[in-house]
Amino acid sequence: MAACISEQAPSASVNVARKPASSTAAGKPTCWQHRLLGKQLARCSQVNNARDAKTKPLDATASLVTEDGRPVCEIIGMYFSFVNPGATCDDFTRQLVELYASVNADNGERRKRFEVVHVVLWSNVTDVLDFEESFRAHVADLPWLAVPNNDYERKTRLTRRYRIKAGVPTLILLEGSNGSVVTRGGVERTVADPAGAEFPWRPPHPKAALEDGPLLPCGGRDSNEPMLHEELRHCFKGVYFSAHWCPPCKAFTPQLVDTYQRIRERGHDFEVIFVSSDRSEDSYNAYTETMPWLKIPFSQEERRRKLARALDVQAIPTLVILDPRDNIITLDGRTELIEDPEGLNFPWTSRLVNILTEKYATSLHDAPAIILFVEGEDCEIQFGESVLLPTAQAYRRDRPDYDPNYDDPDDDTLQFYIALDCETSDILREFIGLDDAVPLLTAIDIPRGIYVVMEDGAEITVDSVQQFVDGFLNNKLPTNKIAAVRKTSKTEHVPA
């Protein structure tokens, strides 16, 4: 769906065998840079020195981390640019080179402030005769690093991870210490502050703007009483940036109303706060007339702008989900809600067991998963969580580098899902070759092209799930080839 650009800037007894976490030669967990970016990077300024041979790659860890494990730089910029989309990317690349030089100038003996890792993509592959030559021409003489041109899998993962839009140059700034996102709006920030005077543009905490005055009731709310932020201290909050003039906003608002009501009916303390980008107070009043939540007063323009900066809002509609302490859970609540309109995964935090939605189904192509298929009643969902969670907790507890706030891109990350009776599950069943039995416990490994099903008639309990996962990870269970893989194999071996 299109977007409008805003006018505002477990049990200790469970013991699950598993693949070892990624580690260095010394047996220590690898750093986040290595896990995210892979083993090798290219130095852009050197690609043309190896024109007649493969570009010599660099060790990603050595390029970004010192021998004693400290980050080489304060900020890493993930820069996604596109070849052949017009001059947009080329123009911004020049601006980024200037920012890079300015931020790193006069740094003395201190560590480098800013490093860029360039991900080169193509908007129109039909016009490319030689991808390697095109890659070299695009990055030649740039002062930073790049994901190697032939590392297609890594590029795909990074593009999916950061939800990059085709043809749109994107700069995402990450903390050098832990990989957390500082801002997704690096392009806009660079254009507004080309010398990087306020780099890296860390946003203020949203609490300051939320506390700065009353929250008024919208027209569809049961109570006409204004509220103070302090009264919402026990609530999860959805901060909704939207406007009456924006068609995607007007299409999304009824969806948000429906999910908001469903979430509250399930007993969650959830409140939505509307932040307007309307052009007039009349439009603002008309738009909020049927909304059942709270709103920032239209007259408090600076408060609204401050909140947009604090939550890194680049476009509308945007729904940001905050926890009761006003820490950000997700900046992409809109996508979470669209893919989970019942709010079954609310508040959309990083969880050990999730309901299988279209978003998560995409991740099955990257890593194996334990999936329990059920019909979808609330009691069955609760049952699924009760039998899967102890094993998921034990599996994660054994990972020395596990961080619940970090989306680990390693292949050996085992996922745990509950699949309901829905279109996403139907598509997956057909792809894998599963019948429509429920409940059905499976282990699906699309990267390896195999799946395992718990034996027919076996009772699904905490212990049997643990034994099943243990057997799967130790390759002790009979495997089946995924239906789509079988079809491909038959096609490839048809005699001429």
Q: State the total count of DSSP E strands.
A: 21
Q: CATH class of the largest domain, please?
A: Alpha Beta
- Percent range for helical residues? 25-40%
Note the overall shape.
Answer: globular
| Content-based structural category | alpha/beta
The helix count comes to 16
Domain Thioredoxin: 162-358
GO molecular function: thioredoxin-disulfide reductase (NADPH) activity
Pfam families: Thioredoxin_8
InterPro entries: Thioredoxin-like_fold, Thioredoxin-like_sf, Thioredoxin_domain
Give your account of this protein's structure.
The structure is a single chain. It is globular, with a radius of gyration of 25 Å. It is built from 16 helices and 21 strands. Helix 9 (281-288) links the parallel strand 11 (270-276) and strand 12 (294-295). With 496 residues, the chain is an alpha/beta fold. The longest helix has 20 residues, at 378-397. It has helices spanning 32-37, 60-64, 88-104, 131-139, 152-161, 186-192, 207-211, 247-265, 281-288, 301-310, 333-339, 358-363, 378-397, 423-432, 462-473, 483-492; strands spanning 4-5, 40-43, 57-59, 73-83, 112-122, 145-146, 170-175, 181-183, 216-217, 236-242, 270-276, 294-295, 315-316, 318-322, 328-330, 354-355, 369-373, 415-419, 440-445, 450-453, 480-481. The model is unreliable at 5-28, 400-411 and 490-496 (pLDDT under 50).
